[in-house]
């Protein structure tokens, strides 16, 4: 093209907008994959959900309580007495157990009837409950120790003392088996009345049958 003053002008070709190289469906698929990977990372390293299937921790934890377990906390502090922990069952590591930490490494533990002694002093356990009359499983002794808990091990017990399979029967727990600390109840339902074991169907069923929900337990912080 020639300008009015006689000079030639060069015009740039029109640049077309670049077409999207990825389809919408592919973007959704990639977003889903990222979300799944993030969820798996959180489950592996931060928190994990567990459900209470038995009454060994009654009344602290009830059958049908759904918990979030903090898998990160013990990177910053040691395990403490009174912590409610989830761990791999030493006799079958495909199963997860939940108990309360009673004895710590280096301590001398003794049990006489219903009383636990740590380093010769009676342990105050307001969370522990017993049957009336006492009814312990055959494999769970009334008398144990004194025994020194070695380094890297814990002595754990259920709060429902006469109905708990714990360190009294299968021995000490290695700290390396601990998954994390139970922190909060995020869902609770009278599970005996629910026709499914999966969490999502249970939640949906509870929405239709709200009387099955234990509303007062939701959001309860565990101590």
Notes on the structure:
By secondary structure, the chain is of the alpha+beta class. The protein has a single domain (47-217), classed as Umud Fragment, subunit A, CATH 2.10.109. It has three helices and eleven strands; from the N terminus they run αβββββββββαββα. A hairpin with a 2-residue loop joins strand 5 (108-112) and strand 6. It is globular. Mean pLDDT is 78; it is low at 1-13, 15-21 and 30-45.
Any descriptors?
single chain, globular, 223 residues, disordered N terminus, 3 helices, Umud Fragment, subunit A, 4-stranded antiparallel sheet
Topology:
Layout: H1 24-45, E1 47-51, E2 65-70, E3 84-88, E4 96-103, E5 108-112, E6 115-118, E7 121-122, E8 143-148, E9 153-157, H2 167-170, E10 173-174, E11 178-188, H3 199-208
Antiparallel strand pairs: 1-2, 2-11, 3-4, 3-11, 4-9, 5-6, 5-8, 6-7, 9-10
Summarize it.
This protein is of the alpha+beta class and 223 residues long.
């Amino acid at each position: 093209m020639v300008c009015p003053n006689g000079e030639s002008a060069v015009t740039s070709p029109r640049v077309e907008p670049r077409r999207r190289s990825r389809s919408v469906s592919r973007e959704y698929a990639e977003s889903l994959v990222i979300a799944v990977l993030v969820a798996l990372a959180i489950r592996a390293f931060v928190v994990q959900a567990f459900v209470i299937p038995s009454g060994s921790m009654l009344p602290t934890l009830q059958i049908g309580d759904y918990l979030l377990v903090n898998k990160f906390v013990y990177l910053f502090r040691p395990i403490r007495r009174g912590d409610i922990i989830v761990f791999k069952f030493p006799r079958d590591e495909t199963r997860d157990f939940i108990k309360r930490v009673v004895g710590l490494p280096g301590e001398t533990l003794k049990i006489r009837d219903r009383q636990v002694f740590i380093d010769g002093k009676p342990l105050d356990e307001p969370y522990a409950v017993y049957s009336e009359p006492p009814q312990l499983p055959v494999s769970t002794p009334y008398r144990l120790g004194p025994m020194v808990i070695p380094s890297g091990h814990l002595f754990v017990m259920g709060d429902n003392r006469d109905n708990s399979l714990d360190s009294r029967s299968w021995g000490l727990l290695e700290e390396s088996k601990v998954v994390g600390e139970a922190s909060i109840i995020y869902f609770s339902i009278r599970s005996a009345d629910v026709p499914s074991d999966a969490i999502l169907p249970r939640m949906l069923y509870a929405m239709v049958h709200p009387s099955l929900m234990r509303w007062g337990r939701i959001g309860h912080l565990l101590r």
